[in-house]
Amino acid sequence: MTGSVSRSGARPPLLGGRKERLDALAASSGKGDAGVSLAASAWRRLRRNPVFLVGAAIIVLFVVVALLSPWLAAHDPSARLLEGQVSRARNEIPPAQEGFPLGGDQVGRDLLSRLLVGSQQTLMVGVFATVIGLAGGLVLGTLAGALGGWVDSLVMRVVDVMLSIPSLLLAFSIGALFPRPSQFTVILAVATVQIPIFARLLRGSMLAQRGSDHVLAARALGVRPRAIVFRHMLPNSLGPVIVQATLVLAVAIIDAAALSFLGLGNPDDSIPEWGQMLGGAQNVIDSHPSLAFWPAGCIIVVALGFTLVGESMRDALDPKNRR
């Protein structure tokens, strides 16, 4: 009977039912994901990730406050409006009162206004240091990954030497080279520390792109090496570097605050900065810990926000996590 069914061309019911089920399963699984790029799929996961949403909310709030701080600050951050309530003999500072929700500092300046204006300085230092470090890392990483040979060896040995030194110690050493500390010296010191991180990451991404199919196809078609580097290898290598920039921005804010705390930042305390405020409070931290608590808390929360966003983006852009 089985042979006659096969000779007549009839299909066994079991195979027919299995084929229909497989076709239905394939159609249902590809209905919502067909043609979705890695970036679109990553954004779809990020929108449902509470860790990313919390970090993004912190960053948005920080940026808005920093940009609007000159208008949000109720008083001049350098004006000693509460100086009459300061008593060095009794070690007293102005307490919280009407118009001054956080009170004043050790010389009678409004603490809340200084925190608001200081957020702008902290954002500027972190962003500029990250951008300069990213630019330097892109140059070195592109040279090493595109040219290879002795250029790659030379660049990587310099990067290895810089990475062998603790980042804060290297930034402190660079900042100490300048005769007069300023905000520019802090930016330059922190940016120099970040260059080898971006250079090594970009170089590794570009080396991975060398053997990819689209690069091999471009070489087979006779595309010029410069066009291959800047049109094919470099754009496809920037994803991990951009994610790393988000994480480095958190480290840059912490390192900049550390340098200002150690006295290598802007010596003019009429222009507040969170690390500078933290350093100025160290002499009275035993009797007035609030002067150190508020700037330190702001630094920790903002760094946490950038770290949460960076880690979420790293997980979302990982092709292994695609479902």
TrEMBL record:
Similarity comment text for this entry: Belongs to the binding-protein-dependent transport system permease family.
UniProt keyword list: Cell membrane, Membrane, Transmembrane, Transmembrane helix, Transport
UniProt keyword Kinase, yes or no: no
Domain of life: Bacteria
InterPro entries for this protein: BP-dependent_transpt_permease, MetI-like, MetI-like_sf, OppC_N
Chain segments annotated as coiled-coil in the UniProt record: none
Organism (species): Streptoalloteichus tenebrarius (strain ATCC 17920 / DSM 40477 / JCM 4838 / CBS 697.72 / NBRC 16177 / NCIMB 11028 / NRRL B-12390 / A12253. 1 / ISP 5477)
Name of the protein: Peptide/nickel transport system permease protein
Limits of the ABC transmembrane type-1 domain: 119-310
Topology with respect to the bilayer: Multi-pass membrane protein
